[in-house]
Inverse folding.
């Protein structure tokens, strides 16, 4: 029997308890031993819930119990999660977490502590919910040099964009719908502004390139500026707008990373990732394109990933699973020098197509969706050039990067 | 330095040599040691190729060299691959293979031998080419009970069906096109008749359910009977025809498995898997739907998967990676008792819609694509019932299972 403790009895924590109960027998076979939840930590009480029998309020009971071999941290946020996790590792316990903030900020350090002690720090559930992506990156794509990772990593924004596209809602309506269904928080900024996706692509990039990618360095733009008119133009172009979290290694081996809405067409593997689903596209220099798809959030899919990590930790109780994520910082390319094509809308009275041709040279005109608008796609230009040219479009109504 | 030997210098074997050369430095980091190819075995000579320096014709040189820790078998076919692999394991070497025939037939036995000796027998490349699917099934989806695996597992047939659908080719034209591009063999029966997909779904099912699924037990139907008229009807129904290799665990925990063409619509995760790509959809009882997509064949993608297994074997030189695949046979449900809906075409003069209504009860009529045809979709009925009813449709022109 292997004793574990669960820190946090919220959505994911209760999911972990449920999964271990539902699939206990097959999990025992996979882990080679029974997994027993000895403690659940939470500051709250849960009257009537059988969890009360093992509920504790003091983390030290867990940290000081040598019988606890694996600690599952599913509280979220940096503190006190960071202190608890670090202390657990220092006391010889492996840790499994679903906490993307914690992993993005302290992943390299916590992996080092685990490695020194032949323990494990596992975090499959921190990116893509139930989708296996951390383990495939670490253990399956090891023959490749990764040249691109692009993900639809935030289910809430993907739901909003899908609703806007499929049902013609505007942004506010789609957001309210997402909130009503529990997909979006009352304060939706972490999702809508792209901060959540930013932390997740920081984690994936750090693993893909083996060095620390600081999320603070990643250019991040959310979807709050996307209007129903943009969606109509996308349809006119046989395209969809998706919030992409992307990191790309260019020929000179430098990496850039960004989170931003992107127009894509049906030939992109992520085109059909709709609703609250997530998809992660990886390109390697020998494997070519691979894509992983599934539920990016939700109680049971996320708990499934957490419990799979518990199984792996149980199978490797005194053996570190090799993960390459050095604390050495990877300096990203300044986004100003990255090139894209941009879809641009402007007030025709202030910016005519011929004005735009003068400004950009070769452009691709887009038939108007709204009366008296100029709409076109620019040639491939740097972000810096685009910024400068925007200053010269007086009737500018919006721009979205294009990947087709 | 870890010495390996490669058995077979064909497409995949030369790909393995190339990948280890191209990405040698990053592979060294991932494996924790340099991977050195000490021997390549082939009966042929390769004048002018630097491989000549390490080419041997006698497998015993490899089997008897204690410095060789990992043997890579990429010859294909049952013999002599089986004898070589078994002997290598018995002599204390881990084995990596891309050989689906070998794994489907002898996987359980070879895994047992490896387990007893704390060695590894790894076969990621045997299914789905470069797509990580074996390792995710073994190591990532461990918290779930798998209730369905459905794959588009054969690139050749998927290419043919895609060409028929996108470019209006008939079957023979599309097959010739695939042969011209090297996607199909001169004798295409292993692909076209579904035998290749059958072995692959046998492997995935054995891993998912932990017991031996004999490929001989799997009902297998190819795509040679699919006509351009069928494709036109599929389009009329907003559907596509895909060769599905599927195994499903029903409520009573019994499993059925089959390979057969299937009509699906855009809401199925495998709908957009086109061309020579493969896609594998897995449904777990807690994780829900996940899907893996990528190049299902090809020199470098397959070699990438082989080398990733070499890296894993190198990291686990004296430790068996736990894989649950007992040699105990899983008795599949008799396909006669499995239910589907069927799309049916018949000569209207011999089989009118009202005749069909009498025969099947509730049917869904499909507008005719070819003059004087009766086309419809049956209610959910067993394969046995369908076979019996077919006897009563004198002008029967074809039927395809429907999954929507």
């Amino acid at each position: 029997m292997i004793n574990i403790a669960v820190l946090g009895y919220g959505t994911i924590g209760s999911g972990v308890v449920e999964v271990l109960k539902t699939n206990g027998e097959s999990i025992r076979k996979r882990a080679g031993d029974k997994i027993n939840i000895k403690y659940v930590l939470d500051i709250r009480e849960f009257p009537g819930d059988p969890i009360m029998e093992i509920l504790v309020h003091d983390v030290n009971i867990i940290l000081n119990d040598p019988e606890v071999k694996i600690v599952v941290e599913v509280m979220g946020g940096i503190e006190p999660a960071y202190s608890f996790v670090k202390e657990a590792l220092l006391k010889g316990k492996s840790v499994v977490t679903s906490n993307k903030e914690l992993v993005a900020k302290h992943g390299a350090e916590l992996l080092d502590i685990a490695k020194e002690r032949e323990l494990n720090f596992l975090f499959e559930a921190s990116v893509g919910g139930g989708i296996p992506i951390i383990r495939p990156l670490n253990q399956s794509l090891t023959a490749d040099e990764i040249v691109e990772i692009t993900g639809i990593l935030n289910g809430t924004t993907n739901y909003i964009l899908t609703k806007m596209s499929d049902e013609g809602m505007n942004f506010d309506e789609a957001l309210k719908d997402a909130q009503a269904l529990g997909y979006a928080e009352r304060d939706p900024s972490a999702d809508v502004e792209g901060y959540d996706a930013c932390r997740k692509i920081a984690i994936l990039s750090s693993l893909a390139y083996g060095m620390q990618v600081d999320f603070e360095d990643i250019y991040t733009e959310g979807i709050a500026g996307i209007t129903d008119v943009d969606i109509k133009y996308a349809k006119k172009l046989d395209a969809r707008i998706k919030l992409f979290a992307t990191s790309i290694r260019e020929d000179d081996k430098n990496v850039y990373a960004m989170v931003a809405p992107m127009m894509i067409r049906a030939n992109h593997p992520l085109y059909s990732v709709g609703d609250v689903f997530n998809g992660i596209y990886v390109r390697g220099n020998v494997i070519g394109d691979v894509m992983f798809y599934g539920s990016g959030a939700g109680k049971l899919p996320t708990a499934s990933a957490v419990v799979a990590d518990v199984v792996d930790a149980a199978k490797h109780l005194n053996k570190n699973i090799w993960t390459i994520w050095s604390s050495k910082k990877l300096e990203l390319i300044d986004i100003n020098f990255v090139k894209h094509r941009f879809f641009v809308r402007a007030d025709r009275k202030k910016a005519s197509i011929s004005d735009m041709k003068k400004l950009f040279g070769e452009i691709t005109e887009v038939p108007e969706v709204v009366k008296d608008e100029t709409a076109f796609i620019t040639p491939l230009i740097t972000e810096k050039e685009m910024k400068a040219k925007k200053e010269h479009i007086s009737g500018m109504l919006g721009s979205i990067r294009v990947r087709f």
Q: What stands out?
A: Chain B has a mean pLDDT of 96. Chain B touches chain A through 55 residues (CB under 8 Å). Chain B is about 35% helix and 25% strand.
